[in-house]
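---------- Forwarded message ----------

FYI, see the LAO/AO transport system kinase record below. Original note from H. follows.
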Amino acid sequence: MTTQTVIQAMADKVLAGDRRALAQAITLIESGRDDHRIKALALLDLLQNSNREALRLGLSGTPGVGKSTFIESFGMMLVAQGLKVAVLAIDPSSARTGGSILGDKTRMERLTREPNAYIRPSPSQTELGGVARRTREAAMLCEAAGYDIILIETVGVGQSETVVAQMCDVFTLLLAPAGGDELQGVKRGIMEMADLILINKADGDLAAAAQRTCADYAGALHLLRKRAQDPDGFPKAACVSALQDTGLPEAWEDIQHLVTWRKSQGLFVKTRADQARYWFAQDIRNGFLAQLERDPYKQKIIDLAEKVGQGDMSPSRAAQLALASLRSAPINDANT
């Protein structure tokens, strides 16, 4: 069986909703091997025009805020409405070994057992921005497989975690009540990217604190500049309890209202087009960086780094020389 036949068969199975084929396809696109990348690009080409559109929801928040619990409760609610839900959970990786625990799936036991839900944990592999390098492509595969909602859970490490906003339709920020310094909301960065801020754990003894925190963030949001992609009242803050399933239907209504309005204004399609251009530029950058890891440039980079370390050359000058060596070099599309 030829490689083209194998890839076509995998594409057909993904389009048919085969979960095993979907898992194999995501593993293929996440692989760093050159031969696998060539196959992955061929697969993505076959699925590019599947004419299936899922709603991509990005979810971020600090560790311990209850992201996994929220996703499970929210996902169960969506499944109960007859929707197919895919979860792409990004776990932090070791900066030393690249390894990852990938424990998100074990924390979503109920959702894992649902036939109309698919959970895929992936290591961030030390990528910045809270998502793995191929998360967007994994979302495309889930979309082609017929899932209606794709939840993208980021690592959850802080204000710089904004890359997920470049691959989702609605970006939700999950926060804990009484977390301290609630007016962090006025800071630029991740707060500026959020479409919906949900104060989780609004139950029991924390219910009153959650209401106060929600009010603080609602006030902070009014200080931010009005965004063209928002209807009146957005971005907004609200309280939810993933443990008691309260506030989740209202949050889903807010998300649907926001998406419907953006589609009616032509902003939904425009945003996806802008995101595609963003990832095109990112892949070009990654392709150039990959060239520096290959002969004959690899040894030159090592030599230049040694000169920088010895103080014989400034980092800026060494970088200029390294980039100059790439100006006439062809790009190997297996690395893009």
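H. also flagged this: The mean pLDDT is 85.
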